[in-house]
Amino acid sequence: QTVVTQEPSLSVSPGGTVTLTCGLTSGSVSTNNYPGWYQQPPGQAPRTLIYSTNIRSSGVPGRFSGSIVGNKAALIITGVQADDECDYYCVLDLGGGTWIFGGGTKLTVL
Amino acid sequence: QLVQSGAEVRKPGSSVKVSCMTSRGTFNSFAVSWVRQAPGQGLEWMGRIIPSIGTTNYAQKFQGRVNITADKSTRTAYMELNSLRSEDTAVFYCARGEAFDMWGQGTRVTVSS
C-alpha cells in the first residue's frame, strides 16, 4: 500500500527558512504526481498554498514556493513568520483519478 | 465558494449524507473531492466526482462504503457514508478540482450510540 511521507514535526526560527518534504514509499515523486501543499491553522479548513508542484494559489505570498528536490516534493518557506505555525499537508496524484494526502507536518516557530 | 451542510449526529451502523453546494462554473468544469479529518488526525482523501460527466473515483479504503453523487439541477455534490462506526467521527470537507484550490467550511459528523 502506497504511503505519502512527511516529517511529523519541524521547527524554525522567525525569519528563517524551512523545507518540508513529501515522499512516496513506493518510489520517487515527480511532476506527474502534481504535488499540492495545504496549510491548516488549528480549528480551520485547509488553505491551498501550492498546486501542480510549484503554482502558487491566488493570494499566497511569494515566500511560499514548491519544487521537486531529489525524489520528493518540497515546500520551501522563507522569512518565516509567527503565524506560519500551522499544520501542513501535501497531496499526490496516484493516477487513475485517485489522490492521497501525507500525514502532515506540524511546524513550530520558535 | 463551496457551502456544506450542517453538523450531523448518527448512531453506529447508520448512514450520513453530506452536501456541498457549488457555483455553475465549478460544477461544470471541476471535480469535487471529499476529504475526511478525524479529531487530531490528518487529511484523508475519500473520493471524487466529476459532476459534468458523473465519473467517480474512490480511495480503496472507502470503496463499497461511500457513494459520491451530484445533482445538476442544484449544482450540489453529495457524499454518503454507510455502516458508520465511531471511528468515522470526523469533519468532512469538499474541495474543488485537481488543485484542491477551494474548500468547503467542513461538516462535523459525530457517530455515537
Can you walk through the features of this model?
- The complex is a heterodimer of chains A (110) and B (113).
- Chain A is mostly beta strands and 110 residues long.
- Chain A is 0% helix and 50% strand.
- Chain B is mostly beta strands and 113 residues long.
- Chain B has 1 helix and 10 strands; from the N terminus they run E-E-E-H-E-E-E-E-E-E-E.
- Chain B has one helix spanning 24-29; strands at residues 3-4, 8-10, 16-21, 32-37, 44-50, 55-58, 66-71, 76-81, 90-96, 107-111.
- In chain B, the strands form 2 sheets. In chain B, strands 2-10-9-4-5-6 form a 6-stranded mixed β-sheet. A 4-stranded antiparallel β-sheet of chain B has the order 1-3-8-7, with no helix packed on it.
- Chain A binds chain B through residues 34, 36, 38, 40, 45-48, 51-52, 55, 57-58, 87, 89, 91, 93, 96-104, and chain B through 33, 35, 42-45, 48, 55, 57-59, 93, 95, 98-106.
| Element string of chain A (H = helix, E = strand) | EEEEEEEEEEE
Distance between the termini of chain A: 36 Å
Assembly type of the shown chains?
heterodimer
Distance between the termini of chain B: 34 Å
Look at the structure and give the mean pLDDT of chain B.
95
Q: What fraction strand of chain A?
A: over 45%
Mean pLDDT of chain A: 96
Question: Can you give the helix content of chain A as a percent range?
Answer: under 10%
Please give the share of residues in helix of chain B. Answer: under 10%
Number of helices of chain A: 0
Rough outline of chain B: globular
Sheet of most strands of chain A: 7 strands, mixed
Taken in chain order, the helices and strands of chain B follow as: EEEHEEEEEEE
